[in-house]
């Protein structure tokens, strides 16, 4: 697994040998950021359920200025974020739903790639709304197994949806 484009293009990412982590493939990351087109429009990013941090690090490589990573297991994150500037990121170890209460920041882009069938989508999205984590013009990127039941929180709308093999990517924003 490697960084696909930008400043860190070609750099290798450490991936754990455990089967609990499903890093987003190079091909899928390339497709996602092609859809987002100019990541510089999204300088502040939250990469929740970050795993290896591949999506957040890819965003940094393409011009994002700050990324907050959240995951219960930060071993791969510690290794992979070593290639980033020290002030460009924070790593939070623990449960997403608990950590969000302590975050005092709004994000241009929030990335969700939760463990399959462990969290309910509407619960995750309700937390974004409750703690005002997304800027008014911000975007949510939600990656999950295509057969997972997707329950949309009433405060959000889907702007785009794409399927890549067994993975579905949804882009959401606040309802207008």
TrEMBL record:
**Alphabetical keyword list:** Methyltransferase, Transferase
Q: Where is this region: Disordered?
A: 1-24
Q: Which GO terms describe its molecular function?
A: 16S rRNA (guanine(966)-N(2))-methyltransferase activity; nucleic acid binding
- The record's EC number reads 2.1.1.171
User: What would be one Pfam family of this protein?
Assistant: Cons_hypoth95
Task: List the PROSITE patterns hit by this protein, alphabetically.
Answer: N6_MTASE
In terms of superkingdom, the source organism counts as Bacteria
InterPro entries to which the protein is assigned, alphabetical: DNA_methylase_N6_adenine_CS, RNA_MeTrfase_RsmD, SAM-dependent_MTases_sf
The record ties this protein, via NCBIfam families, to: 16S rRNA (guanine(966)-N(2))-methyltransferase RsmD
Q: What is this protein called?
A: 16S rRNA (Guanine(966)-N(2))-methyltransferase RsmD
* Organism encoding this protein: Candidatus Mucispirillum faecigallinarum
Origin organism lineage: Bacteria, Pseudomonadati, Deferribacterota, Deferribacteres, Deferribacterales
């Amino acid at each position: 697994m490697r960084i696909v484009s930008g400043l860190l293009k070609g750099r290798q990412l450490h991936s754990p040998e455990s089967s609990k982590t499903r890093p987003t493939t190079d091909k899928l990351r390339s497709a996602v950021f092609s859809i987002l087109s100019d990541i510089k429009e999204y300088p502040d990013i939250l990469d929740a359920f970050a795993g290896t941090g591949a999506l957040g690090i890819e965003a940094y490589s393409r011009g994002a200025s700050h990324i907050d990573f959240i995951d219960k297991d930060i071993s791969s994150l510690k290794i992979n974020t070593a290639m980033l500037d020290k002030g460009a990121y924070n790593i939070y170890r623990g449960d997403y739903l608990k950590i969000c209460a302590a975050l005092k920041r709004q994000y241009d882009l929030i990335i969700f790639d939760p463990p399959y069938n462990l969290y309910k989508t509407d619960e995750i999205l309700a937390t974004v709304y409750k703690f005002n984590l997304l800027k008014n013009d911000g975007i949510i990127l939600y990656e999950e197994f295509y057969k997972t039941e997707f329950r949309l929180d009433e405060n959000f709308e889907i702007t785009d949806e794409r399927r890549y093999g067994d993975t579905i990517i949804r882009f959401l924003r606040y309802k207008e």
